[in-house]
Write a structure and sequence with these properties.
The chain contains 8 helices and 46 strands. The protein is mainly beta. The strands form 10 sheets. The chain has a 10-stranded mixed beta sheet. It binds sulfanyl-(tricuprio-$l^{4}-sulfanyl)copper and dinuclear copper ion. Dinuclear copper ion binds near residues 654 and 659.
Length: about 700
């Protein structure tokens, strides 16, 4: 391919396929750039940030700094909602600046705001295994209406203990988490249908069902007979967003990987890649790479929905947690659900088909028109692109190859639109832009490849540093991509940043895709290992962002709506402190009458009715993180009096000039002491 931009480093047709080669290349281009830099300096042109770690970027793009520069006080153009990978949470980044705004706690306890530590948030981390402090998240999906972003919710999976969460894009808080029964390894998740009818999630691990009446205590070697894989369809209430596991489909043992819903003409279908069609249970690295082709599973979910409505599903009795956050009470509740309808893929004739896909596919992406389904076999040398129209015809004409454990397998040539030849090495994931182009990440050859889904011709390629996983084009998975930027989420950082010991920052790279050729703009660090992310125009989110909670609407059972109602109540060995916080004091701020061993519950209401004035609360010896209470909200910290004496507490958020004065004392007396319960603020402290 012709390379005409004199500022670009030379690229061979075969990009480097391991890091040492890449580093060699970097060094060459750095050297060349250093020469140019010297020339440029003498010619009165100067690059911004002419520092060693920026050499490559600047060398490739020129003018990149201007494109990502958001002047102080100005806002970014896009929100980037990024999976936090093994951090278990989600981060919010601005584009094009790459600035990190917030981490939204979801599946992991998060001390910064007390998530999973306060009494109100603990139930959100409940599961059928009890309260879990951590999980691993991979994929983000944003809510859609008519196939386009609607800016309401973000959804994210927990991989280890199968759950899906819904995050409000008004409060940037997790509002709901549902556990998925009959499932293990919720990696293939969450994927969304055109109108957010369903969030769909597939299991990575086949396991023996452990629902009522089943015996899951079977030899691992009985995988083929006893292990099953499951895909779950979670219904999303169109008004509230509330979840219900509407039904599941049980498959023979295989490992589901990524998926996408059909769009437009293919609306009503779902496409899942899967590997381990060999059905092995050990050393998958070797044993699950034997078959030349695994599958893309095509599911007619509208048909399945009808069958479930008609009562054709088996009711599986199994326990799973369903946790809902209520912003009226500022509290979460956890309910254990008891059943779920299950369809058997082998029995739902005419609704499930398999399309052969080369070599252990990972990514599975549908283009904005819903015409093409792109499989990405991580060990394949081509990218197969399937045609929805051809699939429909092949089904009608019964062009079957064979069947796989009772599920019909369509003939590869009959469903194939074509193959992208020599795209690079290790194709993983494909995104689409607003001009009809596709972009595929190449993990092994560390590059992004731009190609045309119609002609299957490669149009451009750009190296990434290093080993790129997912890509994100703003709006890429929708029917109307926003385009403009592509972000590459890389697995390996190596020499790109100042080192921080053995653990280096995770990294993303922002690429300008507005022109014919891709241009590298920026490296920016990310939290955890980002897998997938979505980006959405700020204009769709910013106007709806909640500024504070109205105190008169606070329905928390322990709310204290005015300072005069602040009080301390004892019930047995429990002491409840109904406390208010306002700049710059707590009420009460002097408490006596607590005894050794008492469980003290601080129910702290932030009385502020103003944007950006949270108060914190913490007390010495607290075994939970501190609270961070938003204006108008009530949160509760549980603390046990473990020694006699006077214990201080204070506000942890710098809320005013007198923030440092926002403090108080709690006196703990021996058990059985006659010290009366006494509380107050200023001189109002009075016996109670
Ligand atoms: Cu490819 Cu978990 Cu989507 Cu990572 S997965 S990259
Ligand atoms: Cu309230 Cu500092």
């Amino acid at each position: 391919m012709a390379r005409n931009d004199s500022l670009e480093p030379e690229l061979t047709d075969h990009p480097p396929n391991h890091t040492s080669q890449m580093i060699m290349k970097l060094t060459q281009s750095q050297t060349r750039f250093a020469l140019r830099c010297a020339l440029a300096l003498s010619g009165a042109v100067m690059f911004v940030g002419c520092k060693p770690q920026n050499l490559v970027n600047t060398a490739q793009t020129g003018g990149a700094a201007e494109k990502v520069y958001v002047p102080p006080g100005k806002h970014d153009e896009f929100y980037n909602i990024v999976s936090g990978g093994f951090s278990g949470n989600v981060s919010v980044v601005g584009l094009p600046s790459g600035r990190l705004f917030r981490q939204i706690p979801v599946f992991a306890q998060f001390p910064e705001c007390g998530w999973g530590y306060s009494e109100e948030t603990k139930p959100m981390l409940n599961t059928s295994h009890g309260q879990l402090p951590w999980d691993d998240t991979h994929h983000i999906t944003l809510s859609m209406t008519k196939g386009e972003h609607d800016g309401r919710w973000a959804f994210v999976n927990s991989n280890n203990t199968p759950r899906v969460a819904r995050i409000s894009l008004k409060t940037f808080r997790t509002e709901e988490i549902i556990e998925l029964p009959n499932c293990a390894g919720n990696h293939s998740s969450p994927f969304i249908t055109e109108n957010t009818e369903y969030i769909v999630a597939g299991g990575r691990f086949a396991v023996p069902y452990a629902d009522e009446g089943a015996n899951p205590d079977v030899p691992i070697s009985s995988y083929k007979e006893n292990f099953k894989s499951t895909i779950s369809f979670i219904k999303v209430d169109p008004q509230t967003g509330h979840f219900k596991v509407a039904f599941q489909i049980m498959f023979p043992g295989m490992d589901f990987d990524l998926a996408r819903a059909g769009k437009g003409k293919s609306h009503g279908w779902f496409f899942f890649s899967c590997y381990n069609s060999e059905q092995v249970h050990t050393l998958l690295e070797v044993n699950a790479s034997q078959n030349d082709k695994d599958f893309i599973t095509a599911i007619n979910w509208k048909g399945c929905e009808e069958l479930v409505k008609a009562g054709k599903a088996r009711i599986s009795r199994v326990k799973y947690a369903h946790n809902v956050w209520d912003e009226a009470t500022h509290s979460g509740t956890s309910t254990i659900e008891g059943e779920v309808p299950v369809l058997d893929a082998k029995q739902i004739k005419g609704l499930v088909y398999l399309m052969p896909c080369p070599k252990s596919p990972h990514g599975c992406d549908t283009d904005p028109t819903g015409s093409y389904i792109v499989g990405s076999g991580k060990l394949a040398a081509i990218i197969p692109v399937f045609s929805f129209d051809k699939m429909v015809k092949a089904i009608a004409d019964k062009k079957f190859d064979s069947d796989y454990d009772g599920i019909p397998v369509l003939k590869y040539e009959e469903v194939l639109h074509g193959e992208v030849k020599k795209p690079g090495l290790g194709p993983l994931h494909t995104e689409f832009d607003d001009k009809g182009f596709a972009y595929t990440s190449m993990f092994v050859s560390s590059e992004v490849v731009k190609w045309d889904p119609k002609t299957l011709q490669v149009i451009d390629r750009i190296p990434t540093y290093y080993s790129v996983g997912h890509l994100c084009v703003a709006g890429g998975p929708t029917m109307k991509p926003h385009g403009k930027y592509l972000i590459a989420y890389n697995k390996i950082t190596k020499d790109r940043y100042l080192p921080t010991g053995p653990e280096l920052t995770q990294s993303a790279q922002l690429i300008d895709i507005s022109g014919e050729k891709m241009k590298m703009l920026l490296d920016f660090p990310t939290v955890g290992e980002p897998h997938y992310a979505e980006a959405i125009p700020a204009s769709m989110i910013e106007p709806n962002s909640v500024k504070f909670f109205k105190i008169e609407e606070n329905k928390h059972p322990q709310v204290t709506k005015s300072e005069k109602d602040a009080r301390v109540e004892r019930t047995g060995n429990q002491v409840h402190v109904f406390m208010t916080a306002i700049r710059s004091h707590f009420a009460p701020d002097n408490i006596e009458g607590v005894q050794l061993g008492d469980e003290v519950y601080f129910h702290v209401t932030n009385l502020e009715q103003d944007w950006d004035v949270p108060h914190g609360f913490v007390i010495k010896g607290s075994k939970a993180a501190e609270l961070l209470i938003m204006p108008g909200e009530t949160q509760t910290l549980k603390w046990t009096a473990d020694r006699v004496g006077v214990t201080p507490f204070y506000c942890t958020d710098f809320c005013s000039a007198l923030h440092q004065e926002m403090q108080g004392y709690l006196r703990v007396s021996p058990q059985g002491s006659t010290t009366p319960v006494k509380f107050g603020v200023g001189d109002t402290a009075a016996a109670h």
